[in-house]
Structure formats: C-alpha cells, structure tokens
Amino acid sequence: MSVHAADCIFCRIVAGEAESARVYEDDSVLAFLNIAPATEGHTLVIPKRHARNIFDIAPADLGDVARAAKRVAELQRDRLACEGVTLFQSNEAAGWQSVFHYHVHVVPRYRDDPLVPPWRPTTAEPATLERIAGRLRGV
Fold first, then answer.
1. Which of 42, 50, 103, 105 is catalytic?
2. Which end of the chain, N or C, is less surrounded by CB atoms within 10 Å?
3. CA 135, CA 46: separation in Å to the nearest integer?
4. What is the residue range of 17's domain?
C-alpha cells in the first residue's frame, strides 16, 4: 500500500492535482461529490492513503472511512433533507469497482428518486445456507 499512486484519479484529487467539490476532510479521509451522481449530494468517501480495495486497506484507514461516511450521511440528512441514505462499496471489476482506490458511496435517498435495488431478494433453503456458512467457517 502506498501513500499516493500516480495513475489514480482519487490520489490526484487528494493531492490537489484534480478538481473536486470537497464535502469533508480530516487528516486521513477526504469526502467529495461524485461527478456522476445517482442522486443530489451523492458523495464519495476515500482514505487519503492509497488502497486498491477492501482487501488492501489498513484497518485504521477503514475505520476512519466508516466514521467519515457516517458524518457525511448525517450532513446529507440534516442539510439536504434526504429521507434515507444508501452506502455502497465495490471491490474489483466483478464487484462493480471502476476506480481502483477504496471508496464508499454515500447516496442520499429521496422518496421518488430513480434508484432501484441491485438484486431481487429470494429465500434460500436452510440447508444451502448452512453448507455455505460451513465453507466460510472452514469446516
């Protein structure tokens, strides 16, 4: 994990080499508006130290991002009067990650916004759940 990756747009934003509409910043985290927002106020929260994804981020940086995402969600609720918030985080191309610097989307939600759930929930069989849980537990 490096502090700055030269080919990373988010690292360039942290360094002030690329424009952003900053919402919140502290020593380890930066939050800025998404240039392709899902809804008004859609904000990205990133660690200032480069980490590709959830697998690479330092635990302390992950905690800092989570705390900042909560703060941003509260700002959205209090100042944009949104009715809810969706947090979204993707890892690797198969997980829909398109910028390879760890980031959390904090998306303010409004009653009539155009967003829909990314999947249709179905109920799994208990035996299937237990089989998968066993694999995850390593048994």
1. 103
2. C
3. 32
4. 9-137
